[in-house]
Write a structure and sequence with these properties.
alpha/beta; five-stranded mixed beta sheet; Intradiol_dOase_C
Length: 296
């Protein structure tokens, strides 16, 4: 009997044993088994290669701690997290596209409009930046009372949770939009940064000839009653890693060019000392249709 015939028989036997009560579980496991068997059929790994792959996955698991999830990092670095984001959050073309959350979100302090979110050593050394925009629906109607949760790295590419020199809650803020849907805050220009490379995923990136860098960005999660929430990033234009983001999270509509401002009248308007970068970013949320029976 040919190997292909034997592989068909084997796959059939494995699938015949899937008898889960939960139909979705059966579907997911069946899909995974079919694709993994197809992988073996196509790649014909040696036993040594197979054990090397298993050893890699074991080490990925062993690297996980309550603070670090190497398995999610592996998913990020293979574009799988972005693929799952896409199948779950694809929206109309006029909505702000979603993008992966990443591992650095944590609860942000509520801050008033215009607050500085940079309260650490970066404030004195980095380029000042004013981020502002409006939250509207996809027709452009302003949404008052939306929450805009932001988090970003500093000019060294470090989050507060990675850097003892930054106070907790630094470069994070929870803002609420005003009557015109507007939000704004003062911060510093973030830098591009590497994902953690001291574990097996780092080894994989090196072996694949890949760099670990993420282009400079600010994360946002925007929520408003009656609208689909969006978790996304806004990226800094001209960053050298925009075309090769290690996490594959860049979308054209999320890239913003910071505008250098040197006019003292502009600095006074935005309440900053001296030159700054203006960083405009509007967010468009998709209204959620409430079923008529629930709407009364
Ligand atoms: C981040 O942007 O914070 C991130 C996303 C995916 C992997 C690593 C970091
Ligand atoms: Fe990030």
């Amino acid at each position: 009997m040919s190997t292909d015939h034997e592989l068909d028989r084997l796959l059939g036997e494995v699938l015949a044993q899937v008898r889960a009560d939960d139909p979705r579980l059966a579907e997911v496991v069946t899909g995974a088994v079919r694709h993994l068997h197809a992988f073996v059929r196509e790649l014909r790994p040696t036993e040594e290669e197979w054990l090397r792959g298993i050893d890699f996955l074991v080490r990925v698991g062993q690297t996980c701690t309550p603070e670090r999830n190497e398995l999610i990092l592996l998913s990020d670095m293979l574009g799988l997290t972005s693929a799952v984001d896409e199948v779950n959050h694809a929206g109309p073309a006029d909505a702000t596209p979603s993008s992966v959350e990443g591992p650095f979100h944590s609860p942000a302090p509520a801050r008033p409009p215009g607050a500085w979110i940079a309260d650490g050593p970066e404030r004195a050394r980095a380029e000042q930046m004013v981020v502002h925009g409006r939250v509207t629906d996809t027709e452009g109607v302003p949404i008052a009372g939306a929450t805009v949760d932001v988090w970003q790295a500093d000019d060294d590419g470090r989050y507060d949770t990675q850097d003892p020199a930054q106070p907790r809650g630094n470069l994070r803020g929870l803002f609420t939009t005003g009557p015109d849907g507007g939000y704004w805050f003062r911060s510093v220009l973030p830098a591009s940064y590497p994902v953690p490379t001291d574990g097996p995923v780092g080894e994989l990136l090196t072996a694949l000839g890949r760099h670990p860098m993420r282009p400079a960005h600010v994360h946002l999660r925007v929520e408003a009653p009656g609208h689909r929430p969006v978790t996304t990033h806004v990226f800094v234009a001209d960053d050298p890693y925009l075309d090769s983001d290690a996490a594959f999270a860049v979308k054209d509509a999320l890239v913003v060019t910071p505008v250098p401002r040197t006019d003292p009248a502009e600095s006074a308007r935005w309440q900053v000392d001296g030159p700054f970068l203006e960083f405009p970013f509007d967010v468009r949320l998709v209204p959620v249709r409430v079923p008529a029976a629930v709407a009364r």
